[in-house]
Design goal:
The complex is a heterodimer of chains A (108) and B (510). With 108 residues, chain A is mainly α. Chain A contains six helices and two strands; from the N terminus they run αβαβαααα. In chain B, helix 7 crosses helix 11. The radius of gyration of chain B is 25 Å and the shape is globular. Classes of the chains: A mainly alpha (108), B alpha/beta (510).
């Protein structure tokens, strides 16, 4: 995850409390989504950014996961996400995201 | 009449030592984890020049292997070597690092690039064999320096070191003592950009039967900025490059738009020519040291060589309609506007829906040239196959518009898409890598048209959260049809003239 984004996530967690933050990802690949999810839960796996060794344990979902999709107005989802959903390997994304949430999320 | 694409060139410069010393993934690592395993491993994961020349995507980039041919090779490509091609290609060349460093000195007019004399002499000898380096360029090379002089600049005067095969062989001095915009770091990046742009210009002239004197205007569309502390992005890379390339009748300017820059610049060039302001406009850009080895950590983790070891450059000549070359259709411009929104769905819709103006379907465009990043580089880094993702989105839009059935999505991506081959140098893979092949494919009748799409991540500059993109259509020359209509127009004029003459002679007779 981009170093600046890591910094912003960390600042938000400090300002609003980690329990009040939900991170929504839009990565196009399962692997990339998994890396970002790991960064905001267990810390930066590349040891480069401000979240290195910082276990925020934030709640994190990909925008195509049902937990988020079911929260969004259907017409808005259709307008903004449906095409992306059509071309992404959503099952792969879910299988990358689920174990990371199970292992590292502190607020679910 | 629409302006045409008269020619294009594509160059690569192999820069393994710059991967280590100037790529931001590596410079960041040196700051954050100076003793990291990654930094120790890099030098064992660099390719040789011969390997880089034999790398399939590189041979595609310089024009020797058509993307359709490349697609026939099973991925990954990094474990394959293609024989039968050298460093020179149909559209350009791959330059080794030592020659490129000397080219940087040729492009330096402020005595900033200092090179060790033995390195300089031996490389000068190599460059004298290069077909595109004439006497005027060779005369730009300065005297060599003693090794300790170079070292002194690096150790005591904040010069940016230049290495070849791990050995200190030169440096780029800072251009001002306190102005950070003229620091050695910035000057090195800018001179690299300039030198790779110049190499693209030299190839454009040599490989497309063009005279340097014909060029009226040049637009640089890289992603660097040159200026001093009072005007950080003052410019003008374009004119600076034109000077070295010998475009004596040209002026120019810089256009920026992150990775969308080249497509914006091509639309501007096409408009300038169509409006009759200039006859021949070159759009060009050099490469970027910062992006070298950008995904190096992932490549090494997966046991691969560092594949982002080349700088890229390109140049496209947009000219008055010659009745032959493919035209840029300025009536079909796609635009991501401020009001479009930033979701990928909104972006692709805004770029492709220009077709609606003339009732074209998405399937009426034979080829789409999008972000043509080499998947051999991006897939091991977890970023997937970028062009394929773009084609799937265009295909998904075609499904939503009812142009194709959902079951035909894959067929659509194969028929209207291409496999990626361009180095991940930001603006370099964006839309433009196909223009050389596109020109030829249209001339050969292989395709009738193509859409060139450029997209840019403006939010990286922290001035706006917006995304950006523009697109245009290249199509077969309609010159003959217009000629026909021109003939009939002449006929009309002739008839009117005749009628007026008759009228006048009748008046005189009266």
């Amino acid at each position: 995850m981009d170093l600046e984004n890591q910094k912003r996530v960390k600042e938000f967690a400090e300002k609003y409390g980690a329990e009040n933050i939900v991170v929504v990802l839009g990565a196009a690949e399962g692997e990339a989504a998994g890396l970002a999810a790991e960064t905001v839960t267990n810390g930066d796996p590349t040891f480069a950014g401000p979240l290195t060794g910082v276990q925020l344990g934030l709640s994190v979902f990909h925008v195509c996961e049902p937990e988020i999709k079911n929260e969004v107005d259907e017409s808005v989802y259709d307008e903004q996400i449906s095409m992306m959903e059509m071309v992404l390997d959503v099952d792969d994304i879910i299988s990358e995201m689920t174990p990371i949430r199970e292992d590292f999320c502190k607020y679910l | 009449m629409n302006s045409v694409i008269r020619g294009a060139s594509y160059i690569l410069a192999f820069a393994p030592d710059m991967v280590i010393h100037n790529g931001t993934t590596q410079t960041t690592e040196r700051t954050v984890n100076p003793n990291s395993e990654y930094l120790k491993q890099i030098k064992d994961h660099l390719r040789t020049f011969e390997q880089v020349v034999k790398y399939l995507p590189n041979q595609t980039y310089i024009g020797n292997i058509h993307p359709d041919e490349l697609a026939k090779y099973e991925q990954p490509w990094n474990d394959k070597e293609v024989e039968g091609f050298g460093r020179f290609g149909k559209y350009g060349e791959i330059m080794p690092q030592d020659e490129f460093i000397v080219l940087m000195q040729m492009c330096d007019v402020f005595d900033l690039v200092k090179l060790e004399k033995n390195f300089l002499e031996s490389t000068k000898e190599k460059l004298s064999q290069h077909p595109l380096f004439d006497e005027s360029l060779m005369n730009r090379i300065s005297e060599g320096e003693e090794a300790q002089v170079v070292k002194k600049y690096v150790d005591e005067e904040h010069a940016e070191p230049l290495y070849n095969n791990g050995e200190l062989i030169g440096c780029v001095k800072r251009a001002h003592d306190i102005d950070i915009n003229l620091s050695a770091h910035v000057m090195l990046e800018n001179l690299v950009s300039k030198a790779s742009n110049v190499l693209a210009l030299l190839n454009l002239i040599a490989k497309n039967n063009v005279n340097k004197e014909e060029i009226d205007y040049i637009i640089d569309c890289c992603e660097e900025a040159c200026g001093d502390m009072n005007q950080r992005g003052g410019g003008n890379f374009a004119k600076a490059c034109a000077e070295v390339a010998g475009f004596v009748n040209a002026t120019g300017s810089d256009t920026r738009g992150f990775c969308a820059g080249p497509t914006h610049a091509l639309i501007e060039a096409a408009a300038l020519v169509k409006a009759g302001v200039y006859k021949n406009v070159v759009v060009s850009a050099g490469g970027c040291t910062a992006k070298l080895g950008m995904n190096g950590k992932d490549h090494i983790k997966k046991g691969l060589p560092i594949l982002e070891d080349v700088l890229g450059g390109f140049a496209v000549l947009v000219s008055e309609n010659d009745g032959i070359s493919p035209e840029i259709n300025l009536d079909l411009i796609g635009r991501h506007t401020v009001g479009t929104g930033s979701s990928p769905q909104a972006v692709i819709t805004s770029l492709v829906s220009s077709l609606d103006k003339v009732g074209m379907k998405i399937t009426d465009v034979d080829k789409y040239s999008v972000e043509m990043q080499n998947p051999d580089v991006t897939k091991p880094a977890g970023a997937g196959d970028v062009p394929l993702a773009n084609y799937k989105m265009i295909g998904a839009l075609a499904v939503k518009r009812g142009d194709i059935e959902k079951k035909d999505l894959q067929e659509f991506t194969e028929k209207h898409g291409m496999i990626g081959w361009a180095p991940t140098q930001g603006h370099i893979p964006s839309g433009v890598p196909y223009i050389g092949f596109c020109r030829q494919d249209i001339l050969d009748g292989k395709i009738k048209n193509a859409m060139i799409v450029g997209k840019g991540s403006l939010f990286l500059g922290r001035m706006t959260n917006l995304f950006d993109g523009v697109s245009f259509i290249v199509e077969a020359n309609k010159g003959k049809e217009e000629e026909k209509s021109a003939v009939s127009e002449d006929k009309v004029k002739e008839l009117i003239a005749q009628a007026l003459k008759n009228f006048a002679s009748n008046l005189l007779a009266e």
